[in-house]
């Protein structure tokens, strides 16, 4: 039998962690209609990622696959999500990043539509800005990019690279689509994801109340 190019026991551990966390996100309504995808860094060349098109509230170990950092499947015939490249570009660029979470909540989707013309959403003066690693104060502004949606993942990945060159980021929106958030491990990526969701919800509510 060929030896696998990754640690199968570590994969099983990460798959269990993905399944538990994603079930909670699915129950919160952030992964409608089999959308969204989730990954963990497996080592310095591989990531574990959810297989395309599965119900995220009912994932099993068979729904987690291994890809290399070019987004190609490793070791089986499963089909990675078209958006795999948006995960692996982060693992390739940042050795410290260990988890990428992509969701399609209603709040994220509505905010992406509303702020797409401006190209970003600005968070300013919120205590919860401290939830993002490296932020120690509510003072200062945080701009979250909103990229146009496209089915061309190489084009989208290039826009993300340019944004990462320009600023420190823990997430971005895609117009009419959803949110990407990441962190050094699952707990940090979830904290960032939840902070984005909460702050976007606040901005939307303020817009309604101010009308
Ligand atoms: Zn998506």
Feature tags:
211 residues; L-fuculose-1-phosphate Aldolase; 5 helices; 8 strands; 37% helix; globular; binds zinc ion
In short:
The protein has helices at residues 8-27, 84-93, 106-115, 153-166, 186-210; strands spanning 37-41, 46-50, 64-68, 99-103, 120-124, 141-147, 171-174, 178-183.
Give structural notes.
Helix content is about 35%, strand content about 20%. The chain is α+β, with helices and mostly antiparallel strands and about 210 residues long. The chain has one domain: 3-Layer(aba) Sandwich (L-fuculose-1-phosphate Aldolase), CATH 3.40.225.10. Strands 3-2-1-4-8-7-6-5 form an eight-stranded mixed β-sheet, with helices on both faces. Strand 7 and strand 8 form a beta hairpin. Helix 3 crosses helix 5. The mean pLDDT is about 95. The structure holds zinc ion. The site of zinc ion has 5 residues, from loops.
What does the main sheet amount to? 8 strands, mixed
Question: Regarding CATH, which class?
Answer: Alpha Beta
**Could you name the ranges where pLDDT drops below 50 across 5 or more consecutive residues?**
none
Report the average pLDDT across residues: 94
| Strand element count | 8
End-to-end distance, in Å?
66 Å
Shape: globular
Per DSSP, the total helix count is: 5
Give helix % range.
Answer: 25-40%
Bound small-molecule species: zinc ion
Q: What is the number of independent domains?
A: 1
Run of helices and strands = HEEEHEHEEHEEH
Radius of gyration: 17 Å
* CATH topology assignment: L-fuculose-1-phosphate Aldolase
What is the second-level CATH architecture?
A: 3-Layer(aba) Sandwich
What topology, given as strand order, has the largest sheet? Answer: 3-2-1-4-8-7-6-5
